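Submission checklist for the structure archive. All mandatory fields must be present; incomplete records are returned to the submitter.

[x] Identifier: Transcriptional repressor NrdR
[x] Organism: Cryobacterium glaciale
[x] Residue count: 172
[x] Sequence attached
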Amino acid sequence: MFCPFCRHPDSRVVDSRTSDDGLSIRRRRQCPECGRRFSTTETASLNIIKRSGVVEPFSREKIVSGVRKACQGRPVTDSDLAMLAQKVEETIRQTGASQVDANDIGLAILPPLRDLDEVAYLRFASVYQGFDSLDDFETAITQLRTEHTNRSQTRTTEDAPSVGTAPTANQP
C-alpha cells in the first residue's frame, strides 16, 4: 500500500475494524517514512461473468435497477430493494467464489423477491426464466399458491394450542 502523502511503497497497520455491513475491513495505517496516518477500506473482490464472457465487478445497484422494473407499480420501497440486494450479495459471497456467473445472480434474486412481492417475482421470473406461454405462468402461479398454502398451514399449526393444554390467563 503506497502512502498517499509521500508515495512510500510500504505502510504499517495500526488498527483494523470490520465495517457495519461486515463485508469490508477498515484499516488505519501509518507510513514508516513520513509518519502520517491514513485509512483504507478493503473488500474481497467479486466479479460477475456475463453470458457474453465479459467479466465485470459485482454491483448492488444493478440488482436494484433490474428488480425495480419488476416492482414498478407495486408497494415496494427503495429500502426493500436495498435489503434484497444485500441478501443477494450475502448469498453469493457465501459461496466463497471470486467469480460468479450472471445466471447464478438471477437465481439468487428469485427467493428473496418471492418473499418480498409475489407479483414482482412473477414479472422478474417471466423475463429471467424466459416464459414462453401461458402454461409457464400457470405453472409458476400454481407453485406459488402451493408454497403459500403450505406456509399458511404451518403458521396455523404453530399458533394452535397443543392438545391437552389449557390456555393460561394473565394474572396481575
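[x] Structure attached
Curator remark: The chain has five helices and six strands. The radius of gyration is 24 Å.
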